[in-house]
Amino acid sequence: MHAESDRGVLLVGLSQIDQALGDLLLYFLSLKGACMDAEWLLDPTAGNRPLGSLAIRTRIALCLGQIDDETRRLIDTIRQLRNIHAHQPKPFMLDERDIQPLMRAWPKKDRDYINKATEDMRGKHGKSRPTFKLMLSTSFITLYLEEQLALLRDGGVGVKIVESLKSIDKGNDSGINA
C-alpha cells in the first residue's frame, strides 16, 4: 500500500477488510453445507445481492457473533471516511481531522499504540502520519477478521481486536493470540 495515493490507501484498505469479512461470512454460512447459497448471497459483483455490501456484511457478522461491536464501529468509521472522500474528483490528502473519528473509535490503549507506532512516520515513504494511522487501522482490522476465520476453522472462540493488538505489542509478529 506504500505506493498508493491517500484515496488508494483508503480504498485498498477497506477492500481488504471487505474481502476478509466476506471470507469469514462465507465460511460461517457454509458450515451446514450451503456453500453455493452462501456464495450467491455474498457475491458483490452479481448485482443487488442481500449480503453484497460491506455495510450489510458488517451488520450480519455482528448479529451472527462473528465480530464484536468495537470492530463494527471501526469498519463503519472507515466506510464513512470512504463515503466522504472516495467519490470526489479532486485529489486529497488525509489530515488529522479526517482520521480523528477513526482514532476516537479505537479504545484508548489501542489509540495510544497506533499514535506511538506512527510518531516517526511523518514524511517516510511519502506518506503522512494520518495515512499511516489509516494503514495500521485497516491492517489490524483485516488481521482480526482473518484471525476470526482461523479460529472458526479450528473450532475456537473468537477474540476481541484489543487482544490481537496486545499480542502484537508483546512482540508476537503474527498478531495471533494463542
Structure description:
This protein is mainly α. 63% of the residues lie in helices and 0% in strands. It contains eight helices and no strands. Helix 1 crosses helix 3 (54-63) and helix 4 crosses helix 7 (129-153). The protein is globular, with a radius of gyration of 16 Å. The two termini are 28 Å apart. The model is unreliable at 173-178 (pLDDT under 50).
Kindly summarize this structure in a few lines.
The protein has 178 residues and is mainly α. The protein has helices spanning 6-29, 35-42, 54-63, 69-85, 96-105, 108-117, 129-153, 161-169.
Main features:
178 residues; disordered C terminus; Four Helix Bundle (Hemerythrin (Met), subunit A); mainly alpha
Give the C-alpha Rg. Answer: 16 Å
Counting DSSP H or I runs of 4 or more residues, the number of helices is: 8
Mean residue pLDDT:
82
What can be said about the biggest beta sheet? Answer: none
Uncertain runs are: 173-178
Kindly report how far apart the N and C termini lie: 28 Å
Q: CATH top level?
A: Mainly Alpha
Q: How many distinct beta strands?
A: 0
Structural class by helix and strand composition? mainly alpha
- Name the CATH architecture: Up-down Bundle
Count structural domains: 1
Helix content: 55-70%
Question: What percentage of amino acids are in beta strands?
Answer: under 5%
User: What string, H for helix and E for strand, traces the elements in order?
Assistant: HHHHHHHH
The geometry reads as globular
CATH-defined fold name: Four Helix Bundle (Hemerythrin (Met), subunit A)
